[in-house]
Design brief:
This protein is an all-beta fold. It has strands at residues 3-7, 10-13, 18-25, 34-39, 46-51, 56-58, 66-71, 76-81, 90-98, 101-104, 108-113.
C-alpha cells in the first residue's frame, strides 16, 4: 500500500526558508520519480518540482529558489525552499505516479507572510 507523508510546513516571513520532507512507503522508492506539487486557495494544483535519481525539473516560478533532493536510504524526498515569497503560500503535496494513477500525501501548509 502506497503511503506518502509530508512534514515541515509552517509560517515564515518573506525571504525565509523551509525544508519539506516526504516519507514514502509501499513501493520501490529509489527507482521512481517523485514530485512536489502545491495548491493555493482558489487555484489548481500545480507542479513545483520533480526528480529522479538522475534528473530534476522545476516550475519556472521556483527555479533558483527551490531544490528537490532525495535520500533513498530513508525513502524520503525533500524540498528545500529559499527566498520564499507570499505567492508561495499553498498546501504542498508529495506525489508518486504509477502509470496513470497518482498517489498523494495529505499535504503540508506553507504560509509566507509579507
Amino acid at each position: 500500500q502506497v503511503q506518502l507523508v509530508e512534514s515541515g510546513g509552517g509560517l515564515v516571513q518573506a525571504g525565509g526558508s523551509l525544508r519539506l520532507s516526504c516519507v514514502a512507503s509501499g513501493f520501490i522508492f529509489s527507482t521512481n520519480v517523485m514530485g512536489w506539487y502545491r495548491q493555493a486557495p482558489g487555484k489548481q494544483r500545480e507542479l513545483v518540482a520533480r526528480g529522479s535519481a538522475f534528473s530534476t525539473n522545476y516550475a519556472d516560478s521556483v527555479k533558483g529558489r527551490f531544490t528537490i533532493s532525495r535520500d533513498n536510504a530513508k525513502n524520503t524526498v525533500y524540498l528545500q525552499m529559499n527566498s520564499l515569497k507570499p505567492e508561495d503560500t499553498a498546501v504542498y503535496y508529495c506525489n508518486y505516479k504509477l502509470g496513470p494513477r497518482d498517489y498523494w500525501g495529505p499535504g503540508t501548509q506553507v504560509t509566507v507572510s509579507s
